[in-house]
Input
Amino acid sequence: VSDPDALADGFAEFVTARRAALLRSAYLLTGDHQEAEDLVQVALVKAVGHWRKIADRPEPYVKKILARESISRWRRRRWREQPTEVLPERAGTVPDPHAYDDLRAALARLAPRQRAVIVLRYYEDLTERQIADALGVSVGTVKSQARDGLARLRDLVPGLDQMGDPVAP
Amino acid sequence: MGTTLPEQLRGMAEEATRSTDPALGRALWTRGRRYQRRRRVGTALIVATSVVAMLAAGVFAWQRAAPPAEPLPADAPTGLPDRIYEPPNRWLPTTTDAGPLGHVVAVLPSVERGEWWGSRFDAVGISATTGEYRFLDLDDRGFPLDSEMALSPGGRWLAYWTTGTPIGSPNTTHDTITGIALYDAVTDDVRRYEIETQHGVSPFALTWIDPDTVSVGVGQFQGGGDDGFSRLTAELLWHATEPAPRPDDRSKAERRHDAWDTEGTLLSPSRTRAAGPALGFADDQGPVEVTPIDPATGRRAAAAATVPDSRAYGVLGWTDEDHVVTYSVEEEDFPRAVALDVTTGEARSLVRLPEGNAGTILWARDLWGSPVVPAEEPPRPVDPRLLPGMVAAVVVLGGLLLVLWRRRVRP
Output
């Protein structure tokens, strides 16, 4: 595909079809609706420059940007974070807004890379090799981050006994 | 609500479900294109700035290293520069790098020369035809206390002592000397002569007695270590066209002339006059005296006469039979080599000399009569270690700037 209009159309179709899924991943990575929305938009904007190459199969690339961007944003935010008295707004359509408070709070206490590994492993169902590729780290780092992240979650969410850990390839 | 982590994650993710505006895709595409263009322009700007900075550093270094823009006229075989620049830059080219200088009008015997690690002292020659300055590559040059080196009157040959290993324990009073060498400024070749020595040679004299012959007084240290006692053991003559020196077999009369040429006085071209500062003014400026010499015997022919109104630290040569070149300093002026009329005392400035080390410069005495030409300041090459450093700094800084900027620019 080399026609610019066709590329733009393809991109727009992808956004319409997959934005919701991307938003779910981004929400798990950030724990905040506004942040998730912004993260998805940034990942999509960054993907535009590479669209010609990834148009056939864009989702892995966009998710890779999502994961990496969430980590680097967290690092940047650490330096300029301001305390606020107003908590971020929750999505209004959620049936029980407190159903996952424990998990949300536990995820928020993980290091950003640990959190990304957990999300990619247990939500996106990626292999350790795929996670390593997405985050630009070694497989060993993925293993250790997953192990530490799970241990932390077990401590923070006592009811979370069954991990349903997929078998590593 | 499930209890496994994947189930809980899926449940939590559903909280984020929202509808998508169909126009959002196009808007994001436009934003993405704009972001891409900004990154490209910014990257190109930083890379271009880095390249310009590197080119500027290269041009700067090249300009500093460039030879004088207008060398002395080629049709003037020899010229006397009207100024000596000293000390010249420590990164001047060497004769090995840039080729021989041809006849030299003067030699600065001890100039700090930069090296990749540290520095050392070497001689710098000043071309008599182009005025260029270059370090002379003098193999194994020694730095004895006295009679260090001597430049031939025509400026072609430079005689110097060489270091080496003696048969026995070396004398360490100064550099251990084991030979002499003749450097040819026209070909850049060095011819060496090793002297058999038990502890090292003590240099007694190194004097050019004619345009091509140097007289060598060889002493021998009597012991190793820091025992400074030495004894004159041989007097040699080395003709520059011969491979090695031979014993000095000249008559007494011929040798008497040498004395007029070595003890603070210098003989005129016809060897009938000797000029020097009056006795008692060895360390200060004093009147210049001229002594008539009998050319046959080498003895004084008449009483010395004082040149009217003359004041000088010493004599450097003769421009002709009637003008002696002196080294003097007038109040609030630079040191100068001055041509002094020995009859009238009338003085004419020839060369502006550097302050401090003017007395150590070796001169090609036969070239004092050459026409005085404007001297070009020698180039001031940039420390060659700086250029790779500057380029590396630009690359690193440019790279850092690029990474930081690309991270900072937001879509």
Notes: Chain B touches chain A at residues 1, 3-20, 22, 24-26, 28-29, 31-33, 35-36, 39, 407, 410-411 (CB under 8 Å). Confidence is low (pLDDT under 50) at residues 68-74 of chain B. The longest helix of chain B spans residues 24-65. Residues 56 and 160 of chain B are 42 Å apart (CA to CA).
